[in-house]
Design goal:
The chain has two domains: 57 residues, no CATH class; 79 residues, Glutaredoxin (3-Layer(aba) Sandwich). It contains six helices and five strands; from the N terminus they run H-H-H-H-E-H-E-E-E-E-H. Helix 3 packs across helix 4. The protein is elongated and about 50 Å long.
Length: 162
Amino acid sequence: MTPPYESRYEPWDPARGSEIIAEHAKREGATLVILHALQEAFGHIPEPAIPMVASALNLSRAEVYGVFTFYHDFRAKPAGRHVLKLCRAEACQAAGGDALAARAEQKLGIALGNTTADERLTLEPIYCLGLCATAPSAMLDGRLIGRLNEARIDAIVAETQR
């Protein structure tokens, strides 16, 4: 399916992936730096990139894959046009976050960790945004949103569907 918008990401290209890897291979903490750079370029970490990173850094594929799977922000598939991250930390859950997450899932027709069929929105969990003193919080495309309630969730979902 063709997305209803122009993708902000490059299509996967092994030559471009090699370029990105080489650009960052000598940096401290190169594994994380490279994975972030690959995701920035391609919108996800393409499966063929894992052995390329491992080879460039003289690591096993398992080591690179372990880093990739450990961090929640890395994706195996590109995200939707918008990314809505709902706080799933205990404080937000205690303040009604479970019901708000369920409401967002119901309205979007997807579960946390998935992307809508039209590729407009990816719904992800995040663990603490530091705004949970009074109500659950979220992040939409990098913008913090505090004091979530049903009306705000509905407005956020509507905003992402335009």
